[in-house]
Write a structure and sequence with these properties.
Blueprint: H1 2-14, H2 21-26, E1 30-38, E2 44-53, H3 70-77, E3 85-89, E4 96-99, H4 110-115, H5 123-132, H6 136-143, H7 153-156, H8 159-173, E5 177-180, H9 190-205
Parallel strand pairs: 4-5
Antiparallel strand pairs: 1-2, 1-3
């Protein structure tokens, strides 16, 4: 939005100048200042939340048994909903993706579902992500050369494999700000959870999963 771009310019002005413009942009933090959210009824759900997070951070959002609102907070970060008060500032050059804990699938072929966020992704890169997540069923299905319009996978895959397709799509897109909501929810085995966590760590550390260094 115009407001987001204006805030980015102001934030860039506050950052120490550098000979390389990318270094300046990489130094602009994500900021929340006095953020509040109220329901349409007027009931205030959360208020006066402030924090600063540098780019390249991996942050876990937790809650105590007495405090609710984690899901709403993550939706605010993922720009699914907007604050009703205060400011949530994410630099305008960063893409934002909210990944819900409920798997979402397009009524389309498997390949389109995997590459929906980056349809120019190379086959080798996508297959590498699937291998990294241990998605044997998906890899086997793709190896059979199914038609791009074939939707049989939507009914053939287990709930956990559908959840992995959902996560894999996010890793293929590799948005600069990716908000995962309960990413381990559908996986009871430690191995799969570890693979997902490892890929999340790569997403942060390498500014994307399987991307060439010159494009990060």
């Amino acid at each position: 939005s115009t407001n987001r771009r204006a805030m980015t310019r102001l934030a860039r002005d506050r950052v120490e100048l550098s000979a390389k413009s990318w270094a300046v942009e990489d130094d602009i933090p994500l900021e929340i200042v006095g953020m509040a959210y109220a329901f349409s009824s007027g009931l205030r759900f959360m208020s006066n939340i402030s924090l600063t997070a540098p780019q390249g951070s991996m942050i876990a959002v937790t809650r105590s048994n007495q405090v609710k609102g984690r899901s709403t907070f993550l939706k605010l970060l993922g720009q699914v909903i907007s604050p009703t008060g205060g400011n949530l500032f994410i630099p305008s050059h960063l893409r934002v993706l909210h990944v819900s804990y409920q798997p979402v699938a397009l009524d389309a072929g498997l390949w389109l579902n995997l590459t929906f966020g980056d349809q120019d992704a190379s086959r080798d890169r996508v297959l590498g992500i699937l291998q990294g997540l241990g998605m044997r069923t998906t890899l086997h299905y793709l190896a059979e050369g199914q038609d791009d319009d074939d939707r049989s996978w939507l009914h053939a895959f287990s709930p956990s494999e559908l959840a992995l397709v959902h996560l894999a799509r996010a890793f293929v897109m590799s948005a600069e700000v990716t908000v995962f909501q309960r990413p381990f929810y559908h996986f009871s085995d430690v191995k799969t959870r570890s693979l997902v966590l490892r890929m999340m760590e790569e997403l942060v550390a390498e500014k994307g999963v399987g991307l060439p260094a010159e494009t990060r």
